[in-house]
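Subgroup meeting minutes
Present: P.N., E.W., G.H.
Scribe: E.W.

1. P.N. recapped why we're keeping a running log of single-chain structure predictions: easier to compare across weeks, and new members can see raw inputs and outputs side by side.
2. G.H. added today's entry (370 aa).
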Amino acid sequence: MSGLKQDAARKRLAECGRCVILFIATALFLSGCASIGPGTVIRDRFNYTAALSDSWKDQMLLNMIKLRYGDTPIFLDVASVINSYEVSGSADLGASWQFNPAYQSSAGLGASGFYANRPTITYTPLSGERFAKSLMTPVPISAILNLIQSGYPADLVFRLLVQSINGVKNRYGGASAPRYRNPRFYELAEKIKRIQASGNLALKVQSLNGKEVMIIVFGQETDESTEADIADVKKILGLAPHEREFRAVYGLLPVDNKEIVLLSRSVIQILGHVASYIEVPESHVAEKRTYPNYRNELGNGVLVKPIIRIHSSVEKPEDVFFAVQYHQYWFWIDDKDLASKQIFSFMMFIFTLVDSGGKDGTPVVTVPVR
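Output recorded in log:
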């Protein structure tokens, strides 16, 4: 073999060596893709959590707006999210040399890969028995009292979840049956909140006629101010002045002076009530599309703030907690309004608290995302 042919052969061999290295690198890459599953957990879990949270907030506010405008609320639950990945690849390498009688050589390298992400999301309309249980059943008294026991401010819980306490009526702003509060309701809620803050409001459960009964207990170790609040609460509710423990039951009026009766609201009533605080455009009120905006109230001579502030504007606002569009207007909560954000988040928690989670055979909608 001549020197020129030997040099050419060495060059070909070097090129093929580089091809082999490339082939090995490709194989290593494809083998690395085999472990793509674990690497997606953190990313996808938090991305889907954020997306579900945002869509849930949007749906909740949009349904409140619909109630305010006399429209039909629709709730669609995300029943499941299944995310599947597919990764495949192939590579091939070939080379040949012939030195005699005439120098000939050939080499070939090929590689291919495929990646796919196919999430499947299943939606379940909230209807039938589950709709009735989740949205139309009053919030259980045990849940209301446990919220207070857990540290949620009593005035917030009562203003949002309770229609009346021993006949002392709360304001209700729902369009179907709006009514004004008893002048002493806010005073009552504020005093119970102060008793709660002092650590002198507790709950216990005891058996009565084979049934578990919630008992509200006013503590003994109180200061003068707290004792005065307890006395005022008993007076407003018509309770026995020398008793410290009272049965807590659902209803309208007590059977005796040792009973505290709470008439709680359903989730649909809560949504309708909170919807009355939405600041709708005055033009919509003038056109009879919805009822007038909330007017400030006085409670015991003090201005009572709206329980939540939801604004509206033609232009899409910036720096918001979230916003939805309805009737060509944007409705939104300011991201700097911490109180309103907490109220809205609390409402979503209540929705979860009363969700029956039952299966009633409702058709589901499964959407493969491509």
